[in-house]
Each structure stands twice: as structure tokens, then as C-alpha cells.
Amino acid sequence: MIKKKGFTLIELLVVISIIGILASIVLVGLGGARKKAKDARITADLSQVRAIAEMINADAEKYDALCSSGALNGSAPAPYGSQLATVEDDIALQQGTTTAILSCQASGDNYCVAARLVADTGKYYCIDSTGQAGVTTTATKPCTSPGSTCGL
Known about the structure:
It is a single chain. With about 150 residues, this protein is α+β, with helices and mostly antiparallel strands. It has a domain at about 30-135. It is built from 2 helices and 6 strands; from the N terminus they run H-E-E-H-E-E-E-E. It has helices at about 10-60, 80-95; strands at about 65-70, 70, 100-105, 110-115, 125-130, 135. The strands form 2 sheets. The chain has a 4-stranded antiparallel beta sheet with strand order 3-4-5-6, with helices on one face. It is elongated and about 95 Å long.
């Protein structure tokens, strides 16, 4: 009897099954890393907002143009309005929504901006004019009233 070289159908199915199981384990493990990357992007976006806020304050000597109706003001003076609108759109993209889930309050000498994080469900990353920046320790949404700060 002549022996044929090659793999049997059972051997091939076993190998394909093992590869499929390993691939699914890797993909599940990457889910958390993806969410943390989105949070890092939101943090970077808010750092950009901090820089824009200081430029607005340098030009107008107040932060009023930063926020409008609780959201970043896309109609702020050029070029800040378009920059703020771009940042807000990117935050919404990271959060997986069409409108960014954030709060913004600015008046006179102070501002407070916070955006909901993706990996830390129910928590917000907050920046304010006092120099505070960080993740909120409570589920309460910060920056909800004029003159508010992050309170970290």
C-alpha cells in the first residue's frame, strides 16, 4: 500500500480551530487597550482646549469666548472657533457619539471644561483655569455652573 503525504481533514480542522481560539483571545484583550487609547485622545484634546483658552484670554483678557451654552464655542473669534469645533468633534468621535458628552463653563477670569471618558465609565477628565487637570473621583458631572472648578 502506498502512503500519501499530506494532512487529513481532521488535522486541518483542529489547527484552524486552535488559530481561531487564539485570535479571539487576542481581540478580546485589545478591547481594553482601545478604550484606554480613546481616553488618552480625549485627554490630549482637553490639553489643546487649555492652550486655546489661554490664547483667547491673552487676546480678550477673559475666557468668555471659550464656552457657549455649556459646550465648546465653535463661533469663538477666528481662528479659535474652528479649532474648538474640531476638538469637540474629535471628542465626540472618541466617545462614539454624534455630539460630544462634555460640559464647559467660562466667565471672566475662569473656565472649567470636562469630557466623559470611555474606559472609566461614568468618570470625566476635567481641566480648569486654576491649573487643575485630572480624572474626577466621583460620578458627578463637573463644570455645571459658572465659576465651577474641577475640584480634584
